[in-house]
Amino acid sequence: MTGTIIILPGGERFQLEWRRTDPERWGRRLKAKYDESWSAERSDKARCLCQHRGASLPLQIRYRADSHSYHLAVWPNEGPLHEKTCPFYKPDPEKSGRASYVNSVIREGEDGDVAVTLSIGLRRKGPPRPVDDTPLPASDRPGQARQRRMTPLGLLHLLWERAGLTEWRPQFARHRTPTAALGRIASAGTRIRAQGRLISDLLCPVAPGHEKFGRRFHAIVRTEGKENHLFLIGFVEALEPDPRGNFTMTLSGQRNGYRCFLTVPAAERNRLARSHQLAAATLALPEAARQAHVVALLYVTARNIGTHNSRWRGWIQAEVRTGALMTVSRSMLPFESSHELAVADALVAAGRAFEKPLRFDAERDLVFPDFILQDTARSDGYPMEVFGRTDEAYTTRRAEKENYYDATFGAGGWWSWDATTGSRMPPFPSGRLR
Q1: Which stretches in the chain have pLDDT values below 50?
Q2: Could you give the C-alpha distances from 33 to 2, 13, 63, 167, in angstroms and in order?
Q3: Region Disordered: what ranges (predicted)?
Q4: For the segment 360-398, what is each residue's pLDDT rounded down to a tens digit?
Q5: Dist CA 382 CA 282 (whole Å)
Q6: Which 8-state DSSP code applies to residue 197?
Q7: 404-413 per-residue burial string, b: 16 or more CB within 10 A, e: under 16
Q8: In a 10 Å sphere around its CB, with 0-12 CB exposed, 13-18 middle and 19+ buried, how is residue 303 labelled?
Q9: The domain 153-328: what is its CATH number?
Q10: Closest CA relative to residue 257, chosen from 314, 296, 304, 298
Q11: Range 351-381 burial, b when 16+ CB lie within 10 A, else e
């Protein structure tokens, strides 16, 4: 949240980072403006720099009696209206797989930070706790919240969402590189906690040409002891069998200063391949033939290679305990099928503004759009759906989706493409005149 400007009633500029760097000044100024902010007109209340429909979005100055402290908070139901990079932004859970979690899994703080309940136990040292595979309780009806824990895939989706990488604007062109994306992910990790720990304390991006990330990786392993557990995140170049019956994973940039061997046990590699079939199929292609990237978030055990006479002394041996893969376009937009990729690329080429909702840990019975156009006359976005299969189960599912969209947005109030017929992609809804 460094550098975020808040305008207090009367026009005084206020630094959000003072909450951590100068808490006495933070509390003093909010206390001084507390009464004034509550009595002011909406346009004169405390606010950040975000706007919605040409008007500023106000913030509340609130008093917490149990700690005798003051803080800033969004107004009810206005979190989704803030810019994705704003600390006060709160996604609308009904428009993504977030809706599958019970309330305790993602806990939104009033300052924009979140705490999550993970399915793995985070430890500095010692053997990692196993993934909690306890069966989840059945829902009374399809689509209701039922997930009680967030898996590594859910965490990967949360990081991607919090980094603003699920949205596209024409001005993002040429700025969405893998290294830039990982930089945004690293920043997003500073605002997510799990089991009392900041994800950023355990998160090590592996990025091409980013020496700072490489040095930080070695510093964490060196500082925390002979063996510790942390997250690696990067773009997969290769996943190949090794002579010992396991697999070696190579992340882009890993050879450039990271000095790391990354081993994936055969059982975990097989699980990843089953759970992420699109990513596995992409990695099976020669690197030059791939039309997309595969991102990996890996929970690993890492240790220094300490044998004195070894030529690899100073390197790190990391073994994957669990993790998740995600396939993204050249523009860093996630997708779940080749047809979704075609739509995402076409939207980018057409200069449209849109969002790609993520599934998180939701079952397939949860309905939410494949894409949401954000530059049409409809203020809450224009839903888009791609139909890409013809099997019986999917046909039933398709009917459920069509009924939902017709009931929610009205017949003709949503865009769709039946990619199974070989037909050309329909024209996109018209955008607002700029």
Answers
A1: 1-2, 126-142, 434
A2: 22, 12, 11, 35
A3: 123-146
A4: 999 877 888 999 998 988 877 899 999 998 888 888 889
A5: 30
A6: E
A7: bbeeebeeee
A8: middle
A9: 2.40.50
A10: 314
A11: ebbbbbbbbbbbeeebbbbbbbbbbbebeeb
